[in-house]
Design brief:
Number of strands of chain B: 0
Shape of chain B: globular
Structural class of chain B: mainly alpha
Strand content of chain A: 15-25%
Structural class of chain A: alpha/beta
Number of helices of chain B: 9
Distance between the termini of chain A: 42 Å
Shape of chain A: elongated
Strand content of chain B: under 5%
Largest interface: A-B, 54 and 71 residues
Largest sheet of chain B: none
Number of strands of chain A: 25
Oligomer: heterodimer
Radius of gyration of chain A: 35 Å
Number of helices of chain A: 11
């Protein structure tokens, strides 16, 4: 006779085969039939059952040995919440304070000074003031506040360390604190590759001088005759660049004259911009009142301008995009020209290798000299767009995008909550707890990209930085959806015990979509919905272990 | 009665069982105290999610053993369950004489506890989960990430070791 294995008998004795779907399965039936004819196995099953019973009893005696009277329930330590709240409050305070000082206080003072002045300075003076403020004080302030935020971040492992003191897992906590601290303190200072030059009056980089860093210069007058093997960023009243810039050139001033060689991109904003015999290795982005590019200037990339007057005598290797009051083309453009202008003139020396498309008040605003040439088509596109300011409610694409967002949000929300049901369990508390949720959301919204950048500065942290940004974007997208579902669920729960996912999500999304589309308030409500949704998700993630047991 | 008051009563009643479960899983008294405290903290925070129709013991034990197994995994002490299992299923043929109940009855509680504590973690954990937490084989299998039969094999091995240990103890200390 073939006896069942001891394993099979134990499964049988421990009632494992008595549950569905095994109850009537071939194994259970075979053992039942075998036991009818085999006294030895019946004895074995009985013994195994006794064994189970005795083992349970033996283990229960362990329970009885525990001194129940000596223990009292300790309420969850307020330490964690207090620390988190302090951390959030300090972070928000620091950000608000920094934002206020950096963006409003000085900018407001500068605006008042500007408005109170008896003469009308150019907008670039104000831009200069703001730029100089950022350069002089903002950078230091940013460093200080960053240090504060990092210091606060260090508090977390330190508090964890204090909490873990009597526990046996002190070693990993200590290591975590050490690693976090080392990582934060070991971030390479970015200033090593940046040279900052600030003078009240004049900065001159002589012709024989070579700078091998990115240079940031702020002064009244700046002249660069030498060579910069990096990017050159300048804010001044008057700027002249006659030397060589190996990287990008970014300049803001009242008057700018460039006759040097720029290998990278050039971005300039000024009252008056002049390019005389300049060699520009990449794209050119210019904004100003008057822009002139002479015939010796060579542009290897595209030219994009916004100005009152643009005189283009240079040769442009690629395309030209221009918005100007008066546009005069005297040089050669190898690619297309797209222009929005009140008046356009193609002088006798002008030649365009591609098409010319223009917008103007009427077709006759384009004047083409008989010696000028356009290889492609000349097309009049009508009046400039946006000449009359209209609200986005006036455009059907606004409604189309809202509808698309709604449908996409519903699909994504339905899939996300189906796959991760806990997303649908979020609970927005009232009072201080609700504020805490909003604070956490705001902190996540602001700090995640900052941390990603900080981590990204260290080369090894670059992948982590990308992952952080990707997670942040996904969370940002999901935030309003999660909040919408919570709103929909809360409303329906008052009428029904178990609201359906689709109905609750549809209702919530409808409310959120309408609320965020409201004139004036819509933006604020969208921000509020985002930070609340983010806060709820972060809280859910922070408490993920707490409810693991309840989900099994 | 407020939730806090109700919870305090449940705590008084169930703490010994939770503590015993944690101690048997983690083996250290300090670790068990922390784990039991953490279990009740989690339970307290999520008390609103507790469904009264489900026995409280099942709910709180579920939190406790999840916590303890996470703890064991974090300590990197969780052993690979596979190697010892291979081939065992084929070699279990006929029932052996079962004497564990007699052996346990013949020993005092201290000896039995010592024998259970002396089991390797991979045998002790399923034993405690099966006979103290009263989890089914399928629940243990899901928790440990192994098959139901593997759970059975681990329990058989645990019992074999217990038998051997208790026999040795019994021979050394016949009283």
């Amino acid at each position: 006779m073939n006896h069942p294995t001891e394993l099979a008998l134990m499964l049988y004795a421990d009632q494992t085969l008595h549950n569905k779907p095994d109850r009537n399965g071939p194994e259970a039936v075979a053992i039942d039939q075998h036991l009818d004819t085999c006294p030895a196995c019946r004895r074995a099953v009985a013994a195994l059952s006794r064994e189970t019973h005795v083992l349970s009893q033996a283990l229960s005696l362990e329970v009885a040995a525990t001194p129940a009277g000596k223990v009292r329930f300790r309420q969850p330590s307020p330490w964690r919440e207090a620390t988190l709240t302090t951390f959030v409050a300090a972070g928000i305070t620091a950000l608000v304070q920094w934002g206020w000082k950096a963006l409003f206080e000085e900018a407001a003072l500068a605006s008042v000074a500007w408005a109170a002045s008896t003469w009308m300075p150019s907008v670039y003076s104000l831009a200069n003031d703001v730029f100089l403020f950022f350069q002089h004080k903002g950078a230091d302030m940013f460093d200080n506040y960053l240090a504060l935020i990092l210091g606060l971040a260090l508090l977390v492992p330190l508090v964890a360390l204090v909490k873990a003191r009597p526990k046996s897992n002190i070693l990993p906590t200590l290591l975590m604190a050490l690693v976090t601290g080392t990582a934060l303190l070991g971030i390479a200072p970015s200033g090593h590759a940046l040279q900052i030059i600030t003078e009240e009056h004049t900065v001159i980089i002589e012709a024989e001088e070579t700078i091998d860093d990115t240079v940031l210069i702020a002064a009244r007058d700046v002249t660069v005759h030498g060579k910069v093997n990096g990017n050159l960023l300048v804010a001044a009243e008057d700027i002249a660049v006659t030397g060589v810039v190996d990287g990008n050139l970014i300049v803001f001033a009242d008057d700018i004259e460039i006759s040097g060689s720029i290998q990278g991109m050039t971005v300039s904003a000024a009252d008056s911009l002049e390019f005389n015999g300049a060699s520009l290795g990449s794209d050119l982005w210019l904004a100003g009142d008057s822009i002139e590019l002479d015939e010796q200037t060579q542009i290897a990339g595209n030219l994009s301008t916004a100005s009152s007057a643009l005189t283009l005598a240079s040769s442009v290797t690629k395309d030209v995009y221009s918005a100007a009051d008066r546009l005069v083309i005297k040089g050669h453009v190898a690619g297309d020209v797209e222009a929005v202008a009140r008046h356009i003139e193609l002088a006798d020396t002008a030649s365009i290798g591609g098409n010319l498309q223009y917008r103007s008040s009427n077709q006759e605003e384009l004047v083409v000299d008989e010696n000028a040439s356009v290889a492609g088509d000349v097309a009049y596109k009508g009046e400039p767009k946006g000449s009359g300011m209209r609200h986005h409610f006036d455009f059907y694409d606004f409604y189309l995008w809202k509808l698309l967002w709604f449908v996409a949000a519903f699909i994504v929300g339905w899939i996300a909550i189906t796959l991760i049901p806990r997303l649908g369990d979020v609970q927005l508390q009232s009072g201080v707890a609700g504020l805490k949720t909003a604070g956490i959301g705001l902190l996540a919204l602001v700090s995640a990209p900052v941390m990603a950048i900080v981590v990204g500065i260290t080369l090894v942290g670059l992948p982590l930085s990308f992952i952080t940004i990707a997670c942040w974007l996904v969370a940002w997208y999901l935030s309003q959806i999660v909040l919408a579902y919570y709103i929909g669920r809360s409303i329906i729960e008052k009428r029904h015990d178990r609201p359906g996912l689709a109905v609750a999500l549809l209702l919530g999304l409808l409310i959120v979509t309408l609320a965020t589309s409201l004139p004036l308030l819509g933006g604020v409500l969208a921000l509020l919905a985002t930070i609340l949704g983010l806060g709820l998700m972060v809280e859910l993630w922070l408490n993920r272990d707490s409810i693991t047991g309840t989900l099994q | 009665m407020s939730n806090s008051a109700a919870f305090a009563i449940l705590y008084q009643e169930y703490y010994p069982r939770v503590f015993a479960l944690c101690r048997l899983l983690l083996l250290t008294r300090d670790g068990a105290e922390d784990a039991a405290q953490e279990t009740f903290t989690k339970a307290y925070k999520n008390f609103r999610q507790y469904q009264p129709e489900r026995p409280f013991w099942h709910w709180v034990a579920s939190i406790a053993h999840h916590h303890c197994i996470d703890e064991l995994r974090q300590r990197n002490r969780w052993q690979n369950l596979e190697p010892d299992v291979e081939g065992v299923l084929d070699h279990l043929e006929s029932p052996e004489p079962v004497t564990l109940d007699l052996l346990i009855s013949a020993q005092d509680q201290h000896q039995v506890r010592k024998a259970i504590d002396g089991l390797p973690e991979k045998y002790r954990v399923p034993l405690v989960l099966a006979y103290l937490a009263q989890l089914s084989y399928d629940e243990i299998a899901a928790l440990l990430g192994i098959s139901r039969n593997h759970v059975g094999v681990l329990l058989l091995r645990a019992k074999e070791r217990l038998r051997a240990q208790l026999r040795t103890t019994g021979l050394r200390d016949p009283s």
